[in-house]
Design brief:
Layout (H helix, E strand, L loop, with lengths): L7 H24 L11 E6 L2 E4 H17 L4 E4 H6 L13 E8 L1 H5 L6 E8 L2 E9 L4 E6 L3 E4 L2 E2 L11 E5 L7 H7 L7 E5 L3 H9 L5 E4 L4 H13 L3 E3 L16 E4 L2 H14 L1
Parallel strand pairs: 3-4, 10-11, 10-12
Antiparallel strand pairs: 1-2, 4-5, 5-6, 6-7, 7-8, 8-9, 12-14, 13-14
Helix pairs in contact: 1-2, 6-7
Amino acid sequence: MFEGTETIEEFLARCSADVEEAVRKAAAAEILPRFRRLAEHEVDQKSGPHDLVTDADRLAELRLTEDLGALLPGSVVVGEEAVHANPAVYEALQGDAPVWIVDPVDGTRQFVHGDDGFCTLVALAHRGTVIASWTYAAARDQLATAVRGRGAFLDGQRLFAGPPAPGRDLVVATSHPDYTTDEQKGALRALWTDGLAPRPCGSAGLEYLAVASGRLDAVAFSWEAAWDHAAGLLLVEEAGGTHLTLTGEPFRITGGNALPFTAARDAATARRIAGLLNTGS
């Protein structure tokens, strides 16, 4: 159990730069040297041909687990690859200790194919609430950060999502068909309607960044894995956007959400997308 002598907010005021350095160093040591240089033996499948993992994923997560845990004694790490090896690790999201939520390479499919549309996602949560997040697109050298109540930033510049421009179709990134069941496809199919322009998503973290930046109107996703959503949802919130599940409640990183859910650049867009998803469910 976390028994620190300072609050998480005090920790962030003191150590945010150290977290950023840890993220950058993990990418520099384990991810970028393998970008467009992956050997065949460095790529494996997990659940199937569309669920890939590389040595970069595994080694970057191990490094982040060590470095982040050392920065905040008493904290725990929930990483994508650790949960794949031992699903019980995920239960830490329900506990009292601060939790680092880590996706070492979000967009592994893009990474494997030499596309620079991948990123490293780190979020710090406590008792189910995301407090801070780091989204690092290493191949683009872009870093987005957010702290609850203090705004969202991209390379030091404040992000404001703002409402969509009137009179144009809303662009919505949706769960990629390769990763959806027939039932999920049915729910998402409701977005293929007048006034919307849905497309398959790439890296979830970068899609959330696009929403927070006002370059994308919304996302609609059909899965709950906290490492894909925690960092980006805070970015969207702190940029003025919002997120809703099918019951009209915000998405919970601890699970039990009514899916699919949406995150959008403003409340009106979120309500519209959630309403359509409800008709397809």
